[in-house]
Amino acid sequence: MRIYRSPHNPLIQTKDIVPSRGDFEVIGVFNAGVTRLGDEVIMLLRVAERPINSNAQKLLTAVYDFVSDEFAIKEFSLDNQDNDYTDPRLIITPRQTYLTSISHLRLARSKDGIYFDIEDKPSILPANKYETFGLEDPRITLIDDTFYISYVGVCPFGITTCLISTQDFTSFHHHGVIFCPDNKDVVLFPEKIEGKYYALHRPASTLFQKQHIWIAESADLYCWGNHRNLMAPRGGYWDENKIGAGAVPLKIEQGWLEIYHGVDKNNIYSLGAVLLDNTEPWKIIARSEQPILQPETDYERLGFFGNVVFSCGLILEDDKLGIYYGAADTSICYAELSLDQIMQNLKPIV
C-alpha cells in the first residue's frame, strides 16, 4: 500500500517538550489523541518522564502519591538479581511491578496539522489512587458540543480506563473509572446508534492470555454493559499476537471504519482497519488482511520501544485520512493515505 509519510517526521520529539519538573527528563512523547476545535488541530500528547539519574548502577522512576499530592522518587539497584529489567517499560520486583516512567497529558495546537505549539506545562496530571503510575493513550471523541477523553490510568490495582470531558480544552471535568482492570484501548463512538452509546475496549485475560477487542453499550457514557467479543487476533497474520482499538471510529457511507493496532509474533506493532455495520456495530463487514501502516523508517523501528506504530487519533478530510501516530514509543509522526486505499485493503467477512 502506498502511504505518504510527512517529510517533517517526527513532528514532535522529546526535545520539543519542557519537562514538568526541573529534576525530570522527557523520554517519550507519543500516542496522542487528536481532534479539531474551530480552525485548529488539537492534540493531547502522552508525555513520559523520569527522574534525572546520574548513577549508572541505579534506576529511578517516579510514582504519584495521592495522599500528599506529590511525586515520590523510587530507586532500584541494577545489581539486584531479584528484579527483572528486561522490558525497558517495566521494573518487575518480587512484590510489585513499576513503570520506568510516569506519563501525563499535554496540549498542543496547530493551524496546519503539522507545526504544533506545545504548552510548557501539563494539561492533565495524575490526580487519584487509580493514576499513581500515570496517564496514558488519550482518545478524544466529540459528541454534540462536548469532547470526551478516554485514557488509561495505571496503578498498583491494575490498568483502568478513565473519562474526562471538556468543551474548550481549558477546563476539564473528571468522571472517574469507566472500565475496571485490566482494560485499555477504549474508544467511544461519536454518536448514539439506535439510541445507545457504544465503545470498543480491550480487556486482558491473565489466565488465558487473551487480548481481543470487545464492544459495549451505555445509556449515559459512564455505566457500560452488554459486553460482546468483537474480534480476535488471527494466527499467521500481522495481528496474530494481540489487537486493540486505535482512533475513534469514523462514520462513512459503508459503515463504521476503525483503525486498530495489531502485534505480530515478533512483537511488531502495525495498523490495520476493520469495517463495522452502521446500525449493528458488533457485526464485522470487512477487515484488513495486510497492515495499512507498519514500522519501516528508522524513527519507527528504533527508539525507547522499537518497531511500533500506534495511533490514538486521526483526521478525515474528503477522501484523505491523516493518521497521527506514536513511533517507537518515542515521538509523534504523521502519515496519510486515501480512504479508497483502505477500503480496497479490506477483505469481506463471509
CATH fold field value: Tachylectin-2, Chain A
Please provide the count of β strands. Answer: 27
Largest sheet: 6 strands, antiparallel
Strand residues, percent: over 45%
C-alpha end-to-end distance: 24 Å
Structural domain count: 1
CATH architecture: 5 Propeller
CATH top level assignment: Mainly Beta
Q: Whole-number average pLDDT?
A: 97
- Principal-axes geometry comes out as globular
Question: How is this structure best described in words?
Answer:
- With 350 residues, the chain is mainly beta.
- It has a single domain (4-348), classed as 5 Propeller (Tachylectin-2, Chain A), CATH 2.115.10.20.
- The chain is built from two helices and 27 strands.
- It has helices at 298-301, 339-345; strands spanning 4-5, 24-37, 40-51, 58-65, 70-77, 90-92, 97-99, 102-110, 117-118, 134-143, 146-155, 158-166, 173-179, 183-188, 197-205, 210-211, 213-218, 224-231, 242-245, 250-252, 255-263, 269-276, 284-288, 309-317, 320-327, 331-338, 346-348.
- The strands form seven sheets. Strands 19, 20, 21, 22, 23 and 27 form a six-stranded antiparallel β-sheet that branches.
- The longest helix has 7 residues, at 339-345.
- The protein is globular, with a radius of gyration of 19 Å.
- The two termini are 24 Å apart.
Entry summary:
This protein is mainly beta. The protein has helices at 298-301, 339-345, and strands spanning 4-5, 24-37, 40-51, 58-65, 70-77, 90-92, 97-99, 102-110, 117-118, 134-143, 146-155, 158-166, 173-179, 183-188, 197-205, 210-211, 213-218, 224-231, 242-245, 250-252, 255-263, 269-276, 284-288, 309-317, 320-327, 331-338, 346-348.
